[in-house]
Fold these 3 entries.
Entry 1:
Amino acid sequence: MSRRKHKPPGNKRKRRASPARSWFFIALSSAILIGCGAVVTTHWGFRPLPEITGTNIVVPSHWRPEETARTWKWIVIHHSASESGGAAVFDTWHRKRGFDELGYHFVIDNGEGMPDGDVEVGSRWLKQKQGAHAKSADGQYNEHGIGICLVGNFEKDEPTAKQWQMLVKLVAYLSSEYGVPSDRIIGHRDVNGKTLCPGKNLSVEKLREDVKTYLRENRK
């Protein structure tokens, strides 16, 4: 009777993966990693997407609204009149005052609570929804005005250098993209004269001039 020979376990031959199978698993792993990265969000809920080209300047893609654009006629500049804050904080404040959500379309941070110069995009902008930031008798500044709030009290202080840089870029993009003339870039105080906002240390006249310069320097 013949006896079957048993090979020691250590002598078993390992099956080598084919090149095609190796590339398949590499591609699958990459796809999983990319997929995981796609759900990473910033502090205000937006994906950090690559920059895209605007009318004549390059802007982050999340500055682009998700819906068809409204007819915008004004850009209204505000200050928060607080030392610190951010979009999430102001959203809470506004809801307590009876608003349905953050009243501004954009918030530019000052480094006190959120990174200096960050532009936070509110859901009103993404949905192309009217603002709740500049009340007037005829309602036109809320209906057709883009509200931008800079964190800070500019009756006492000045915008940071990064805030100003991002304000100029944002307003340049918005005015160019949506056809808002420079004389309709205004401060909140220009709506009805009942407020000091955006403060004596934020010059709307200088903003208009800096926006014009920025657009000249960034023509295609």
Entry 2:
Amino acid sequence: MTTSNDPKSLSQARFGEFATAYLTSTPHVEGEDLTKLFTMANPQPNWVALDIATGGGHTANLIAPHVKFMVAGDITYKMLRAAQTRLSQHDNTTYTTTDAEHLAFAPSTFDLVTCRIAPHHFPNCFRFIQECARVLKPNGKLVIEDHYVPENDHAARYIDAFEQLRDPSHHRIYAEYEWRGMYLDAGLVVDETVLMHKSSGGFLDWANRQKCTPETIEKLELMLIQAPQDVKDFLHPRAIGTPEADFDHSYILISGHKPV
């Protein structure tokens, strides 16, 4: 039974139901952030690469033509099947259901591990980083993109509450210093971080992607309207209550490597 006390089952249920929406979601399919992630990854022809929580397969699809072998993994089987429709053109790509916190691979397997816009769903994000470090080869590279929040904890938790209202499988967003700390504590060297803001793709599209009820949409609008100023400075809400309503997501891209 899927309950809020079983976050991984909740993620599987929700993303299994909404898999097709994420396959075509504009903020996931394209953008400057995806291009930057590819540049930071800098995939090489002799590499074996892993994309964790591949979702619609957008990152794996971009990297696969540039590496020797590509593995796309996701905890949600239906999401993985949806990703295959995008990735089937690549004959060097395989698919596996795997838990990000318990990766089903031997140590020192991959030259590159990527994960895009997913770790905020993981109950134990540091455990995920440790697992990535374990499966990386020496000098292997870990490139992650996810939401980030202000260092002000009150503002950070307000943003979490906003995201959890829309998607109960949302767990927690981290500040930049927390991302750096997780990399360092897992034994990785941080090479580069990039911070950027990006439109949600339209407030209503964002809400409807998780099939929010009209009542939930109204509550989300109120949270944006009544948000503390430091939250508004981060989310940049605009035209709330109209069909053109929108706000920004803030993303961190962080790249690091496993020392020899």
Entry 3:
Amino acid sequence: MSPASHSADEQMEAFFIGPAANQLFACYHPAQGQANSLGFVLCAPLGQEAIQFHRSLRLLARLLSEAGFPVLRFDFQGCGDSAGDQENWSLKNWEQDVERALQALKEKSGVTSLGLVGVRLGATVALAAAAARGGVQALVSWDALLDGHEFLSEARAQHQDMLANAHVRVDMDPEGEARSELLGFALPDNLVKELEGLRSSDLAASPARQVLVMESFPRFPQAGLHTGLEKLGACVSLQNHENEQLWAWTEDFAKVHIPRKILEAIRAWAQELPS
């Protein structure tokens, strides 16, 4: 690690957003050196993907802060160290969380322009939240969920594969068959219904002026999102960095892959944005 990386970690501030009843846990990474007027909020994926990708998002926050961008990471309602439980899991709730996180970033950093980086379901939520609020300058959508029904089908198949290979005994949970569960996380019925009806074509407005659509896995093609965003008037770039080690369930978290080249590509794109 470089001295700048040590400095970035030392200056990171953990805090809570909002009142105790529905507070969000957040980590703020101040800009290193000359601060940019643009700051980024990072939106994590869901469940097992969030656990596996936690380290990558922290590294991305550090890379962006070292490049002069203030960054805020946070946990959605019912996730991580934020208030609530899985009954609070809702796309609408999480879109409101994005707005709260953006406001917290403005208060902490004083930035005048706002950016978002979303990964998987976090990208889907970021796109919807930004399109609804308007005024977002830059957005990175990384392997967004573009069809909720397809996502649920694939995730359920992955869940069955986990049960067949992991060190768990299904017969110890007789109620499990009646519960919608993905890789150890029970999904509330309202979220399942939201996901079943989720389509990328639902976006009615451009989520940001500048958008980077990042595709890193062949089974999650993003070309349709790129085309749709262009029709909505966004200035869109599509980058493909194929990495089949991502988004595969692993029982050993010591073997979680860190996609360093993709993280650095996001930082490079942000540095090239018009001021």
